[in-house]
Structures are given as structure tokens and as C-alpha cells.
């Protein structure tokens, strides 16, 4: 009994001494206790496949979503260069493509996603669960210590779980043949055919009505475009004169390759004046000749319809007439028209010098002048052939022919 009392008293003294030791002394500063962690996880990521089971060769979208902490004091810096479609590895899955949507913020978290388009081509995977390969996402935690000071932590890695995706066969197991997957019925095909025929018929009717309307509008316009011209039997048209003058210039240029004779220069100058007269609209003087009648001096013989019509043609147009035509051009005249008249002026001047001066340099200029006037004659004849434009006034006809 006495021993029990002594043991109890000793235990009470020890407990009292322990309480006194743990109590802080008066006036002594208290030891700071570190705050409890807030429970914020720097980085969270998860997978989300669009389908739980796919066929062999079928493309499935697998989305990787991550939530990174970005608060005022702590920031998780993720190395996203290893998550792009070009850098990530998904063997045995084949990466077909992928996208990276715009990041989204929710409070102190930044959410970002990467969508990968995967497919399985291995026939041995049919009927099995094929897991995604392990994916390690590196990141680092940065802490803000002051206004501009930040401390970067050590490199960390977030390991993604391997989720399985079931790979089923290409066709059901009980299928005995290959079946078409088209969903269009016979009724839908008939409706589409009827609608196509209706649109085709309506388009044909509208096109016919439009053609009738265009013809009805062009008939009065064609009547207004008719101009009264002086018709003289046997008179050659302007296009016929241009074709004749151009062919004569071409033949004279080929035959005078070794040098120009006075007769060739005289004929070339006369043909060039014919081209200038038609271009300027000055008119060409023509005279019908009988079968045995001689060609007057200074004129050129123009035969048509296999020699049944013979005419002596000439023109008195000179380089001075072309100069006056250039000066009379409207301010808005095209550069092509002005350049044509200037080339025509230079050609007539060169042929006049070659015919009357008869020196070596003038003969050389005559070759270029003949080719230039020949090209102008051919271009003008071609323009007269395709120059019917209902929206533009017709060109004035040449003056009435002069018989001499």
C-alpha cells in the first residue's frame, strides 16, 4: 500500500514538471509555426478519348487536357514543345493529325488542350485493348519572392496514365459478306433524280427565253447600225485594197533583197499611199479597166474575181496628211492608235526619201519602211474584218470613189 502511494506521487510530480517545461516562459518570444499547405496542385492532366472502341483504321480523337497553376505567387511552367503533334510519340498508334485549341483561364488555373487524331493499323490488335503509351510532361514551379524576383524550382515530371482503347474487327463477327454502308434509300434516290430533272428543265426553259430576249433586243439595234454607203458596181472594198497593198509590199520586199530599183521604189511608195489613205479614211481613187486597157502611169493594177474585174487604184495621201491626223487626235485617244499613225508617217517619209534622193542610207531605210507599212495594212484589214461592235458607233465610210 505504501509502495503504491509513493509511485503515484512520483508520477504526478513528473507530469507537473513536464507541463511546466512545455509552457513558455514569461517574456520569451513564441516560436513561429509554418502555415499549413494550401492544397493547390501545380499541374493536373487527364486523357479523354472520343470513343471507347474503334475499328481497325478508324481515326479517333484523343484529347489531352491540363490545368496549370498560375497564381500571383506560384506559377507552373509547362514545357509544351514536347506535346505538339510533330514532337509527341504515340507508338503503336499512328498520329494522323491534331489541333491545339486556344488556352482558357479559370481563376488561378490555365487550361490548355492538345487534340491528337490517332488510328490503329495493326491487324493483331483486333479484339484487344490497346493502351496509350506513357507520356511524361515536364514542368517547373516558379515562386515569386518580391516585386520582380522569382525563384525557379527543380524540374518535375507529370506522368500520364495509360488509358486503354478497345480495337474491334472491321465487320461484325456474324457477317458473311461485305455490305455497303450507304444510308440512302430508293425513295431518296428517286426524289433527288426528280429534283435534278426539274432543275435541268427549268434551266433549259430560262436559257431559251433569254436567247429570245437577246435576239429581240439586237434586231432593232442592228437596224440602227446600218449606214448608207455609195454603191458602185466593180468598186473594191477597203479591206480588198489593204490586202492588195500589203501583198504588193511583201512581194516587193522579197524581190528587192539585193537592192531597190527606181521602179520598185515607185510601186512601193504607191502601195504605201494606198494603206495610208484607207487608215486615214481619205478614200482611194479607182477606175475600172477593160480587159485590154492599159494601166495609167502612177497607178497600180488591182484584179479581183479571178481577173474578171480590173481596176487602176491610186491615192494622194502623203506624210503631211498623216502628221495632220496625229495632231487632230483627241486627248483621250489610245496609245496604240497614235503609235500606228507615227509608224505610218515614218514609213511614208522613208519611202519618199528613198524614191527621190536615191542614196545608200535611204535604200536601207526603205526595207524597214516597207515592212512597217505592210504590217499596218494587215493589222488594219484584220481589224476591219472583226470590228462590228454594237455598243460603239460605226466608223465613217470612205469618201465616194472618184473615177478618172
Question: How would you characterize this protein structure?
Answer:
The structure is a single chain. With 404 residues, the chain is an alpha+beta fold. Among the domains are: 43-168, Immunoglobulin-like (Sandwich); 238-385, no CATH class. It has helices spanning 2-22, 186-224, 238-255, 262-280, 319-327, 335-356, 360-385, and strands spanning 43-49, 53-55, 60-69, 74-78, 94-99, 104-106, 109-119, 128-131, 136-144, 150-159, 164-168, 285-289, 300-304, 309-314. Strands 1, 3, 5, 6 and 7 form a five-stranded antiparallel beta sheet that branches. It has a three-stranded mixed beta sheet with strand order 2-11-8, with no helix packed on it. Helix 6 runs antiparallel to helix 7. The radius of gyration is 51 Å and the shape is elongated. Residues 1-37, 388-398 and 400-404 have low confidence and may be disordered.
Quick structural gist:
This protein has helices at 2-22, 186-224, 238-255, 262-280, 319-327, 335-356, 360-385, and strands at residues 43-49, 53-55, 60-69, 74-78, 94-99, 104-106, 109-119, 128-131, 136-144, 150-159, 164-168, 285-289, 300-304, 309-314.
Amino acid at each position: 500500500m505504501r509502495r503504491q502511494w509513493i509511485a503515484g506521487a512520483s508520477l504526478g510530480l513528473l507530469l507537473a514538471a513536464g507541463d511546466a517545461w512545455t509552457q513558455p516562459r514569461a517574456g520569451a518570444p513564441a516560436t513561429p509555426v509554418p502555415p499549413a499547405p494550401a492544397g493547390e496542385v501545380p499541374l493536373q492532366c487527364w486523357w479523354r478519348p472520343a470513343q471507347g472502341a474503334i475499328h481497325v483504321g478508324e481515326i479517333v480523337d484523343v484529347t489531352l487536357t491540363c490545368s496549370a497553376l498560375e497564381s500571383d505567387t506560384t506559377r507552373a511552367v509547362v514545357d509544351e514543345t514536347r506535346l505538339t503533334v510533330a514532337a509527341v510519340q504515340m507508338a503503336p498508334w499512328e498520329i494522323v493529325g491534331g489541333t491545339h485549341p486556344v488556352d482558357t483561364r479559370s481563376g488561378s488555373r490555365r487550361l490548355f488542350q492538345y487534340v491528337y487524331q490517332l488510328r490503329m493499323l495493326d491487324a493483331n490488335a483486333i479484339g484487344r485493348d490497346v493502351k496509350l503509351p506513357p507520356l511524361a510532361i515536364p514542368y517547373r514551379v516558379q515562386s515569386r519572392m518580391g516585386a520582380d524576383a522569382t525563384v525557379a524550382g527543380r524540374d518535375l515530371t507529370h506522368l500520364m496514365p495509360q488509358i486503354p482503347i478497345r480495337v474491334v474487327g472491321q465487320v461484325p463477327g456474324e457477317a458473311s459478306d461485305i455490305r455497303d454502308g450507304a444510308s440512302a434509300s430508293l425513295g431518296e434516290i428517286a426524289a433527288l433524280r426528280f429534283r435534278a430533272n426539274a432543275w435541268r428543265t427549268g434551266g433549259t426553259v430560262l436559257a431559251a427565253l433569254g436567247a429570245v430576249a437577246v435576239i429581240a433586243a439586237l434586231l432593232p439595234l442592228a437596224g440602227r447600225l446600218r449606214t448608207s454607203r455609195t454603191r458602185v458596181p466593180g468598186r473594191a472594198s477597203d479591206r480588198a485594197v489593204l490586202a492588195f497593198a500589203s501583198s504588193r509590199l511583201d512581194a516587193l520586199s522579197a524581190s528587192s533583197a539585193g537592192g531597190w530599183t527606181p521602179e520598185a521604189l515607185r510601186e512601193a511608195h504607191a502601195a504605201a499611199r494606198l494603206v495610208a489613205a484607207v487608215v486615214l479614211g481619205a478614200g482611194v481613187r479607182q477606175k475600172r479597166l477593160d480587159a485590154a486597157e492599159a494601166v495609167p502611169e502612177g497607178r497600180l493594177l488591182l484584179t479581183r474575181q479571178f481577173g474578171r474585174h480590173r481596176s487602176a487604184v491610186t491615192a494622194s495621201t502623203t506624210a503631211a496628211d498623216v502628221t495632220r491626223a496625229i495632231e487632230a487626235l483627241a486627248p483621250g485617244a489610245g496609245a496604240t492608235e497614235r503609235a500606228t499613225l507615227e509608224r505610218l508617217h515614218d514609213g511614208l517619209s522613208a519611202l519618199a526619201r528613198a524614191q527621190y534622193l536615191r542614196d545608200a542610207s535611204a535604200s536601207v531605210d526603205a526595207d524597214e519602211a516597207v515592212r512597217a507599212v505592210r504590217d499596218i495594212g494587215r493589222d488594219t484589214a484584220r481589224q476591219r474584218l472583226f470590228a462590228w461592235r454594237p455598243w460603239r458607233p460605226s466608223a465613217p465610210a470612205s469618201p465616194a470613189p472618184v473615177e478618172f
